[in-house]
Amino acid sequence: MVGSAAMADDLYPPAWRGTGGTTFQEWTFSTGANPAAPENVSNPYGDPTATVIVGDSGLGWVGEDEIGTYGTKTGVWDLGAYGSLTLDIPNRPAAGGYKDIWVQVTYLYDPFDPPIITVDGAEYLGGESQVVEELPMFGTWICAQSKWRITPNPNSEVVRITGSDPMGSVIDQVVVDTKCVPEPSAMVSLLAGAVGMLISRRRGK
């Protein structure tokens, strides 16, 4: 179930969120747990996790009491250079078709660098970004969205967020939406099966 915590940086929700064959997971990193479960999730296919590796000069998880100049954020991962967040997302197994993945990452820009975002086996379809919060003395929080597609449809997805070199990357929030789109032949087969069951029930009356 989707939790009640605020999703302040969920700026690019897809219109298909919550429909059949979709998943939703949001990490706000309210604690330093590693691996981390998402604070908000709707995924009937399993439990998503985020595994963190801290790279060169990274501070690791920084909590609310230590953040200081990070603005309104209450928990962030300072990945450092080449550090990583690896998100493992179980998903709907379906033959053929494709999987759409929308990723939103909130990161601190200047003096830190934007992270490198990839999805294993996926084609990049584009994206956009906007400023979330401007800090008076210490950079800007930015929410960046990227859209991806994997063909054929896999049983799970791996999203990788890697700290840039040389300054590293600081991450506050990650939101991942996925949508399973079966191939047309599979959809026709499902429809034919449903019609067949309906006819059988009527004949049996």
What is the element layout, followed by pairings?
Blueprint: E1 22-27, E2 40-42, E3 49-53, E4 60-63, H1 64-67, E5 75-80, E6 84-90, E7 98-109, E8 116-119, E9 123-134, E10 140-150, E11 156-162, E12 169-181, H2 184-204
Antiparallel strand pairs: 1-2, 1-12, 3-6, 4-5, 5-12, 6-11, 7-10, 7-12, 8-11, 9-10
What distinguishing features does this structure have?
205 residues; mainly beta; 2 helices; 12 strands; disordered N terminus
Summarize the structure in short:
Strands 1, 2, 4, 5, 7, 9, 10 and 12 form an eight-stranded antiparallel β-sheet that branches. The longest helix has 21 residues, at 184-204.
Question: Describe it for me?
Answer:
With 205 residues, this protein is mainly β. The protein has one domain. The protein has helices at 64-67, 184-204; strands at residues 22-27, 40-42, 49-53, 60-63, 75-80, 84-90, 98-109, 116-119, 123-134, 140-150, 156-162, 169-181. Strands 1, 2, 4, 5, 7, 9, 10 and 12 form an 8-stranded antiparallel beta sheet that branches. Strand 9 and strand 10 form a beta hairpin.
Q: Taking Cα atoms only, what radius of gyration do you get, to the nearest Å?
A: 20 Å
Secondary structure: helix percent? 10-25%
- What's the shape? elongated
- Output mean pLDDT: 88
Structural class comes to: mainly beta
SSE sequence, one letter per element: EEEEHEEEEEEEEH
Number of DSSP-assigned strands = 12
Low-pLDDT parts are 1-6, 185-196
Helix count, DSSP H or I runs of 4 or more residues: 2
Q: What is the end-to-end distance? A: 39 Å
Range of strand content: 35-45%
Largest sheet: 8 strands, antiparallel
User: In total, how many domains does the architecture comprise?
Assistant: 1
